[in-house]
Amino acid sequence: MNEDGVPPSAAATAKELTFSLADLPDVREFAAAQAQDRGMSADAVGDFLVALNEVATNAVTHGSSKAWLRLWTDGGSLVVDVHDDGRLWHPEARPGHTPPPENATSGMGLWVARMLSHEIVVRTGANGTTVSMRFLV
Asked: Fewest C-beta atoms under 10 Å: which of 33, 49, 117, 120?
């Protein structure tokens, strides 16, 4: 793995996109094309986009006004990192593992992303916050 968490074999094929809140439609379009190009079935792309949209929206509404995403394939998986410069987040529990209240109207993004992805890891610290998701292709 390099310092960004991308395996050296994937670094050459990784694709990145910097975005803001207004760019979220472009993020979804970019990610859908990348997912399909990397072998994700058309049936799976919808769930992938819902999870990605939840995490990307969180990044630019709670983390920082600009964020970036990186996609690459690792074996039979599509891996997506979404990173923002937010450093003030100190979750009490493991993010995305506590179900939202029954009548919640917000605060469900990481829960939804965890339900739709094969794996989700959240890292937060002095360099910002990165949410890594893995989807089977």
From this structure: 33
